[in-house]
Amino acid sequence: MDRQRLLVVDDDAGIRDVVRAYATRDGFVVTEAADGIDAARQVDAERPDIVILDIMVPGIDGWELCRRWRASEGPPIIMLSARGAEAERILGLGLGADDYVVKPFSPLELMARVRTVLRRTPAPDADSTPNHGDLHLELAERRATIGGRDLNLTRRQLDLLAALMRSGERVSTRLELLEVLGDGEVAATDRAVDQHMVALRRKLDDAGSDRRIVSVRGIGYRLESREDR
Length: 229
Known about the structure:
Residues 183-187 have low confidence and may be disordered. Helix 6 runs antiparallel to helix 7 (174-182) and helix 6 crosses helix 8. The chain has helices at 13-25, 36-46, 62-71, 86-94, 107-119, 155-166, 174-182, 190-206; strands at 5-9, 29-33, 50-54, 77-81, 99-102, 131-132, 135-138, 143-146, 149-150, 172-173, 211-216, 220-225. The protein is of the alpha/beta class.
């Protein structure tokens, strides 16, 4: 499955470097733009999954880029600005930004906001049958297979595997996975996520899958190729 693409638009190279480091760690493919003209070109050419957009970039400012992308059904936008006045935030959200983050910011909080925006943004292929390496998920039949062999997953295991597969190489946070369990599991907790993941990992290992579930300390879980490490 393709990794999600994030474009960070800021004329401050230091901020671009910080966002790149944290987003790459979370499994995103990151591209950068130092001005609005390059940002507009990249969105047209590459269609990123989400844009982190500084308001005061040169060339074409963030306000105008937000207007253009909303008019053309462009990507989700998180505005990034040192201007934290309530009127500025209202204007940004009114133009169609999905979130507004004030500098200086916590990179961990920014990435949490990125995941939240993406989680509530419908994927264009949300109803398609996802694949990840040799894993094949048949949504209509509610079954996961490897080479045509059914993994015989429980309902909760299947739901969690689907969440991991849709995330590609990006880490699925504990909060995201808890939400998968929350509508049907009484008092879903981090421990419940861990227990399901242990069982799911064992089934993938026993089936000889070329994917494995990796725990990312303090964040969550992701699927990766066994050849990655």
